[in-house]
Write a structure and sequence with these properties.
Strand content: 15-25%
Oligomer: single chain
CATH topology: Purple Acid Phosphatase, chain A, domain 2
Low-confidence stretches: none
Number of helices: 8
Mean pLDDT: 97
């Protein structure tokens, strides 16, 4: 049975509920969350609660850390920073304390896998891994066969063949025993690959497959308007950018 891997919910309750409903209809080993429960979206507390109730492993992302004052929001753009300051005001003490306990990475030794929010290299510096050159650097910073991450909101599989050649896959990929892999699970709550549907990953022993789920993004946008969150964050949900 596969693991369901989800990432970057960002306070989008409608997207998270739709993804969890789809996962429940499948037989999985459990759900692994790669971080950024909050930030951008209008339902931070509800999302943290659902993740706690449903996930086997939960990691912290940079927005989670910034929302509780453990990462510098000064590096965010003006819209992300405004959303983080709003989120700080909204978070309950219970959820704030819970977010403080979360690690930024987790190894599953039996499965020979590493899970991390940003990158294996300096995971708390919140680097992005997007290009093949980024991947080449980061392959040297973990020993496991597979590293699964989030952060960029862009789903992909980068396969490093025994020859050193690297190949990129966009929708699904066979996972050969002799290859090594960096896999981005995409984003549940704010996709950025020009597909507004929520995205999550099914991780089988020999295959990685991305699943896209329709959700009521108009309802999320309505709540963001009511909360006074920045307009560019609202509009991007319908564009998947």
């Amino acid at each position: 049975m596969p693991y369901a891997v989800i990432s970057d919910v960002h306070g989008n309750l409608e997207a998270l509920e739709s993804v969890l409903d789809d996962i429940r209809r499948r037989k999985t080993e459990g759900i692994i969350f790669l971080g950024d429960a909050v930030g951008y979206g209008p339902n931070p507390n509800e999302c943290v609660k659902l993740l706690r109730e449903n996930c086997k492993i939960i990691l912290a992302g940079n927005h989670d850390r910034a929302a509780i004052g453990l990462a510098d929001a000064g590096f965010f753009n003006e819209y992300a920073k405004a959303a983080i300051l709003w989120t700080r005001e909204m978070l309950t003490d219970k959820n704030r304390k819970y977010l403080e306990t979360l690690p930024v990475s987790k190894k599953l030794r039996k499965e020979n896998m590493l899970f991390v929010h940003s990158t294996p290299k300096e995971p708390e510096e919140w680097h992005y891994l997007i290009t093949l050159w980024d991947a080449e650097i980061n392959f040297h910073y973990f020993n496991e066969r597979i590293c699964v991450l989030g952060h960029s909101h862009l789903p992909f599989v980068i396969e490093r063949l025994p020859s050193g050649e690297m190949v990129t896959h966009k929708t699904k990929a066979a996972l050969g025993e002799n290859g090594r892999y960096i896999i981005n699970a995409g984003s549940v709550g704010q996709p950025r690959d020009r597909d507004p549907r929520a995205c999550y990953l099914l991780m089988y022993r020999d295959q990685a497959e991305f699943v896209r789920i329709e959700y009521k993004w108009e309802e999320t946008q309505r709540k963001m308007h009511e909360a006074g969150l920045p307009l560019p964050l609202i509009e991007r949900l319908s564009r998947g950018t």
